[in-house]
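Field reference: sequence -> structure
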Amino acid sequence: MTGPHVVALGGGHGLYASLSALRGACERLTAVVTVADDGGSSGRIRAEMPVPPPGDLRMALSALCEDTDWGRTWRDVLQWRFATSGPLDGHAVGNLLIAGLWDRTGGIVEGLDWVARLLRAEGRVLPVSTEPITVSAEVDTPDGVNRVVGQVAVATAEGRMRSLAIEPADPAVPAATLEAIADADTVILGPGSWYTSVLTHFLVPRVAAALVEAGPRTVLTLNIAHEDEETAGTDRVDDLAVLRATAPDFRPAAVLVDASEDDAALRAAVEDWGARYVAAPMRAAGTVDRHDPALLREQYQGLVSWVSQGGAVAR
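Structure field:
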């Protein structure tokens, strides 16, 4: 697969999987990364500096490293975490490097581009916003509706999500991020933590508008299994329902589903949405919820080609 410009959106391990599958398989690859994390090293950095949390951005950059001793070595350095009895404990080297470049250059996108050069990255990494985003949710529990604030709190909240919001409500978005989505031949959305890595993109007004416009060029990748605390007690049909409620004007070209999640209700929901339904084995051996990059790559190759040739469902 050569030629198309592919933009992948998400965060954390889900985006790492999609980028690993796409790296080297398209002429241009851009990651657009959520910036709502407030835990661990990232949370400590955003508490001390007026910058986005760097952790998910670091993960995306690591996924795109050049496949050489140079690239892999710097990837491993970026991912290395200190284990000390002092204030460095738990900090990822890459988070500190990214924050240091931001502090030195004064530019969020510029700093990320410098780290990409260090890794000789096979693609570009951009934030969904240049401001740190705080996500909150209303959660239905046996004791009533609880409001939880912060990515970690939302991700681990017990109960069923009722609504999701971000602060600031209309954060600053880099021009490069909007240009990448508009320019993409294919947009890959998901997999990832459904509420805090996928749906958050639709809570940023300018990014949401860009994604609605890019719908006919978008492949939505659903998660595997039910290990994610955010979606405990729900299934993939529920994931689609909450996405449609959050972004009623958005409709993707195709929805990619692992064979283990394939069922008549999910297929009917996707087809009712007006999207192409694609089910295939993609789960990594020995796991219950992770995509195998090689199997995911095979599906992306076919779907990117299909979308780029105008194969999307007529609107």
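Note: The CA atoms of residues 274 and 314 lie 8 Å apart.
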